[in-house]
């Protein structure tokens, strides 16, 4: 039955277009992150919540080269968590200590704040390809991730938002049962009475995880949650966990190391093994291949882009 739960990302409007809605059902993409990284239960929830949020933030990007990157550096035992999103809610992520497990917190829940930590900051890079990237940073307020995003949207982007992120896992196997996310953002000019109605709805929102867990699809679950709120769907996408690494991309990383460091690697190791931190794919480079790349590092190709400049 679990394999039939299809991921979905839905954008829409509430209350006669005064509130922007973006919602995700992402059990499969979080499960893929768990499988790739061997995530513990608490980290499945922690990185899962981050992936859901970044997928929603990336849903309406325009160009293939646009991206949203969010890093949580909270000083907790899980280390740093990073997620990168591309147009349509395609995401990838990584975490320093994927296997770290913690006992449940005082409420009997997965101790996400304990794993992530609460002392550090979150960093957001919105790269819209053509313009200078927007970089925002904000102190963490809870380490539970959803509250940190709500605080970030308010403080750094001046956008009050209601953020819900929930990942449920099987107690024994750790497999993902459901993964739900929702961001509600009142648009400028949203009447005060509508804001009050949203606030009254807030306690109900955690029910979204329950609806999805019961096997409802996202569209039905949202209609149920927003009953009486004049909910209008504007777009629907299929989010996924997908890494965009390639041999070509790693070749340019190796070239960017520069002549001296590359010569050093060839003399000391004779070869190189690179592992993608987002999908754990291994890329092996023989001494011969490294020597060819060294040649390119010495003589940048014609029309080399700005990244090809030697230091
Ligand atoms: Zn990769």
**Largest sheet: spatial strand order:** 7-6-3-4-5-11
Taken from the alpha-carbon principal axes, the silhouette is globular
Per CATH, the class of the largest domain reads: Alpha Beta
Number of domains: 2
Instruction: Kindly state the number of beta strands.
Output: 13
Strand content: 25-35%
Structural class: alpha+beta
Distance between the termini: 55 Å
User: What is the name of the CATH superfamily of the largest domain?
Assistant: Hsp33 domain
Summarize the helix and strand pattern as letters.
EEHHEEEHEEHEEHHHEEHHEEH
Provide the CATH topology of the largest domain: Hsp33 domain
Helix content: 25-40%
Measured on Cα atoms, how large is the radius of gyration? Answer: 21 Å
Q: Largest sheet, described in full? A: 6 strands, mixed
What is the count of DSSP helices, taking H or I runs of 4+ residues? 10
CATH architect. name of the largest domain: 3-Layer(bab) Sandwich
What bound compounds does this protein have? zinc ion
Report low-confidence residues grouped into runs of 5 or more: 306-311
- Average pLDDT, all residues: 92
Description:
With 311 residues, this protein is an alpha+beta fold. The chain folds into 2 domains: 2-241, 3-Layer(bab) Sandwich (Hsp33 domain); 247-301, HSP33 redox switch-like (CBS domain Like), CATH 3.90.1280.10. 34% of the residues lie in helices and 26% in strands. The strands form 3 sheets. It has a 6-stranded mixed β-sheet, with helices on one face. Strand 3 (67-73) and strand 4 (81-86) form a beta hairpin. Helix 1 (27-37) crosses helix 2 (41-58), helix 6 runs antiparallel to helix 7 (218-225) and helix 9 packs antiparallel against helix 10. The chain is globular, with a radius of gyration of 21 Å. It starts with 7 loop residues before the first strand and ends in a 13-residue tail after the last helix. The protein binds zinc ion. Zinc ion is lined by residues 243, 245, 276, 278-279, 281.
């Amino acid at each position: 039955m679990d394999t039939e739960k299809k991921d979905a990302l839905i954008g829409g409007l509430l209350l006669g277009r005064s509130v922007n809605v973006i919602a995700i059902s992402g059990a499969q993409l979080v499960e893929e992150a768990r499988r790739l990284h061997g995530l513990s239960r608490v980290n499945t929830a922690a990185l899962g919540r981050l992936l859901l949020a970044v997928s929603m933030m990336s849903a309406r990007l325009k160009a293939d080269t646009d991206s949203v990157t969010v890093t949580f550096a909270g000083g907790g035992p899980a280390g740093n968590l990073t997620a990168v999103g591309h147009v349509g809610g395609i995401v990838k992520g990584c975490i320093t200590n994927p296997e770290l497990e913690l006992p449940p917190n005082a409420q009997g829940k997965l101790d996400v704040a304990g794993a992530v930590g609460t002392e550090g900051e979150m960093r957001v890079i919105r790269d819209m390809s053509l313009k200078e990237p927007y970089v925002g940073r904000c102190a963490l307020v809870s380490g539970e991730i959803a509250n940190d995003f709500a605080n970030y949207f308010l403080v750094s982007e001046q956008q009050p938002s209601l953020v819900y992120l929930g990942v449920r896992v099987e107690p024994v196997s750790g497999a993902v049962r459901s993964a739900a996310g929702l961001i509600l953002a009142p648009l400028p000019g949203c009447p005060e009475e509508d804001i009050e109605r949203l606030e009254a709805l807030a306690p109900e929102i955690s029910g979204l995880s329950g609806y999805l867990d019961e096997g409802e699809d996202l569209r039905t679950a949202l209609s149920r949650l927003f009953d009486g709120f004049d909910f209008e769907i504007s777009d629907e996408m299929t989010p996924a966990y997908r890494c965009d690494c390639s041999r070509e991309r790693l070749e340019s990383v190796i070239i960017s190391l520069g002549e001296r460091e590359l010569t050093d690697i060839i003399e000391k190791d004779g070869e190189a093994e690179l592992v993608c931190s987002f999908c754990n794919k291994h890329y092996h480079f023989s001494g011969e291949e490294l020597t060819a790349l060294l040649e390119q590092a010495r003589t940048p190709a014609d029309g080399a882009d700005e990244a090809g400049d030697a230091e």
